[in-house]
Amino acid sequence: MLAVVAHPDDAEYFCAGTLARAKADGAFVGICVLCQGDKGQPSVPIPDLAEVRRQEMAAAAEVLDAELFRGEFGDGELADGPEQRRVLIELYRRFRPTLVLAHSAADYHSDHRAASALAEASSWYCTSNGHRTESPAMQAQPALWWMDTMNMAGFEPSFYIDVSGYVELKGRMLRCHKSQLERAADGDFSPLSEQMLCQCRARGAQAGVAAAEAFRVHLAWKRVRAW
User: Which of 15, 138, 181, 220 is the most exposed place for a label (fewest CB within 10 A)?
Assistant: First the structure.
């Protein structure tokens, strides 16, 4: 299972519980962070923020014991283009996921929407011999699940994953991103830890469990699977 996200703290917020549950069930799990997180500065700027966030995302991935991949694109510069596709196609071919978790195409942030388009397009072309990268083409396209949106805005789940036993782990992973948690009082941001807890508990209440993460299946040819 591979989570393809825009920013260094997105996997922790949207799908870390599902990744942890999959790992407990024996799956190999990975996190692909496409952007550097270089422009999410707190009110007191942090020198070389991109390097700080590399260290934070590595620490969070270590908590989960997940393989980490970095796209290294600049914040606000992500787009669904040929070069970006080549990068993600190669990452798919190196990790060879059978299931990809990706941002909703309707989420609030332009980088999230670009990451959504990239994840979908690259999940198709990763099997094409005509799209050449260093690694050989995959034999089959991975299935694709769309993740919840921030604050659940405009997202109608088709199913829920019970992550009641993994909320504490989600919190530990999110706390690795100290540079972003320090922005809780900034007018252009929000208290991530509290918002994450509220969201997974709200989705849990909808599903009749203590905590859940919400998804939709990408209902496209060769992008759905029977499990």
Answer: 220
